[in-house]
Every structure is written in structure tokens, then in C-alpha cells.
Amino acid sequence: MEKNINLGIFGFGCVGQGLYEVLNRTKGINARIKKICIKDPNKSRPIDMSYFTTDPNDILNDPTIDVVVELINDTEAAYNIVSTALRNGKAVVSASKRMIAENLPALYQLQVDNKVPFLYEASSCASIPIIRNLEEYYDNDLLNAVEGICNGSTNYILTKIFEENLSFETALKQAQELGFAETDPTLDVEGYDPKFKIVILLLHAFGTFVKPEEVFNFGINHLNDFDIQFARQRNCTIKLIGNCRRQNGSVNAYVLPHLIREHNLLYDVYNEYNGILLESAFTDKQFFVGKGAGGTATGSAVLSDISALLYNYRYEYKKIKQSNQPMFTNDVQLKVYVRYRTPDQVDLAEFYNIVEKYESPEFRYVVGTINLQKLKEANWLKNKDVNLLVLEH
Fold first, then answer.
1. C-alpha distances in angstroms, 351 versus 86, 263, 338?
2. Interior angle at CA 245, CA 305 and CA 241, nearest 5
3. Same structural domain, 317 and 334
4. pLDDT of the residue at 126
5. Range of 10's domain?
6. Contact criterion met (CB below 8 Å) for 224 and 238
7. What distance in Å separates the CA atoms of residue 35 and residue 58, rounded to the nearest whole number?
8. 36 and 119 inside one domain
9. Inter-residue contact 237 to 282 (CB < 8 Å)
10. Which residues participate in catalysis according to the annotation?
11. pLDDT score of 1
């Protein structure tokens, strides 16, 4: 018989309100919100104030609350909430990609030790059920790569730049007004947010635990008109792509802006949408696309996890239990375009080879092959006058 579950929610921002909305509009899910823990009791809320508390223990120590839903921005507080709830034998659903990515080994162990499920589909690609598919459908031996656009904010900005000729600043402001980008957009535009997602997907795709700081991320905040012109002249667009790929028994991962040609499935993923490509030995490429930002899109993924708990679903982490987890490496060659202003800004000696060079009084660029580890260590990439784009294989 299907059970009823009582929910205790932490946080009532964009995603919390999105969850409230989709839960109320969905018939057939026997879940009700019992308490919502918030920081500011004086802020006006769109629902009855009797739902709210400022004391976490009203949820964590309430034996009638079955599922804790964690939707807050504070990474440390989020980890404390989730770990306490799991130790208290409560199932947990979370959307906090940074908290999960930074604590994956500990969170995995807490699930094993306390025999309770922890689901976090909403942390990776909002409305795309990518973790569930990696868990249930793809056997590790067959999967070669997971790559794609997994940040709705930057994709919205890049779409506006390429489709409507907006400036970076105007496009960012629009994304913030629509709730796709945070007030402080650093995590999005510098590629940290998609990196946290890639760290989570690496575990479910290949069974490999990786610390976020091991994965190189470089965002779109150095992009200028010269780079945009370079892309247009080659009939390309620019997309910020997270990539994890198995090669020669190891796996590499990074988040970098890419030049994308029209034949690529990711070329037509616009605005706040995400697109994920899975590459496997027998099925070649499979493509998932869906909204990657916004309250109800993320709220729907949270609701899907809550619904799964009604049927006692949990992640089995099958790939961790297999004996052939690939080791993580940054020892891989990438073909890149690097734009800079003066010769002293880039160390060209670090390139394996250079196939194209351009110089003008205003800008210079090279196209060549370089090792990912060298890029990760390159101080010259911190210079605002230097930009990097990966060219398609």
C-alpha cells in the first residue's frame, strides 16, 4: 500500500516556492508539508505563517516527519542539516550541488551506515533526470562520456549574446532579473556551479570520487567581442560545457567554454535549457534536454525524488561496487584557442603544438594543443586579458 509522507523543508526561496507550487498542483502524490525552516521570520511569505519555524530541531527531531528536504544556500549549514537528518534515520532530498560535491564520500558513507536514502536529482540538471538514468540504465562498462550544458544561467547569457547581440553585462542582468542567475553570479559565470554538477555525475557515471578542486573550471567571464567574432567567422557558437570522459582506463573531467559547430546537438540548446549527451559503446550518443534553471523546473525534480521515496527508491551506486573504477586524471590533450593582448601574457612554450597564430595591434591568438594539467596550473589564465575556448575534436 502507498504510504503518506510528511515533509520538513529547509529554505523557502526560489526552489522551495517552486516545490510548494508543483506539490499543490500535482494530484496523486501522498506528501504534505508539515514544517518549513527559514532564517528570517519577519520576511513576508506567500503562504500561511503557521508553516514556518526558525528552529531546525522542529524538523530534525520531529518523529512524525519522514523526509527532510534541504533547499538552502549555505553549504556548511546544508551539510549539517543533511548529515543530522540521515543519522536520525530520516530520508533526505537535496538540491545543493556544492554541498553534495564537496562532501560526496561522507554522504555516501552516511547512507550506508544509517540505511536511509539520500536523493539529489535536482542538484545536477534541474528538470533532466540524469542521475536516475545513470543509476538505472547505463552499465559502467558501456559508458564512455557524459558531457553537456549543465548551467542554465550561462547558457541564457550566451544565447542572448549570439542570438540578440546583447552585451555580456546586459544578458547577465536579464538572467538575474528572471531568477536564472544569482545576485552574485560568480559560481555560474566562472564555471564553479557546473563543476559541482560534473563531480556528482562522475560518481554516478563511473563510480569515481573526485574532489571539486581536482577538476579544472574556466568560465565565460573573460569573453569579449573579438572571441565572439572569431566564433561567428567559423559558423560556431560558444557554450560552457562540463565534460567527463573515460579514456585508456582513466577518466578526465573539466568545465570549459567550447566552440560548437551547427551539427553538434548542443548547438541548438538555448536560453535556460540544459542539454546532456551520453556516449556509450553500443548506443553511440543519447541526448537529454530540459529546463536547467527556475523554481518550478528544479522544484519538479525535487518532487520527483519525494515521489520516488514513496516507493522506497534509493541510489544503489552500482558503479562504486564494481571492481574497475577508472582513476581520475588531468593528463589529457585539448585543442584550444587562446586570445591575449601582449606576448608576455601567455607562455606559448607550454603548448604541445601550435597550428594557427594571429597578431594585430589590439589582440593576438593561437590555436594549438595543450595538456589539461598545464591549463589547470597556468597563472596566465587568471589575467582578464586572456581567454580560452576549446575547439571540437
1. 48, 28, 11
2. 70
3. no
4. 84
5. 5-128+294-321
6. no
7. 8
8. yes
9. no
10. 197
11. 44
Q: What is the pLDDT of residues 258-299, one digit of tens each?
A: 999 999 999 999 999 999 999 998 878 899 999 887 788 888
The Cα 229–Cα 118 span in angstroms is 46
Nearest to 298 by CA among 156, 152, 95: 95
Claim to verify: residue 311 and residue 360 sit in the same structural domain: no
Cell of 45: 511569505
Domain assignment present for 134 = no
Q: What is the pTM of this model?
A: 0.95
Residue 35 lies in a domain: yes
- Residue pair 318/140 in contact by the 8 Å Cβ criterion: yes
Domain match, 46 and 108 both: yes
CA gap 46, 67 in Å, rounded: 23
Domains: count for the chain: 2
116 and 54 assigned to the same domain: yes
Q: Does residue 204 form part of some domain? A: no
Indicate whether 25 and 90 sit together in one domain: yes
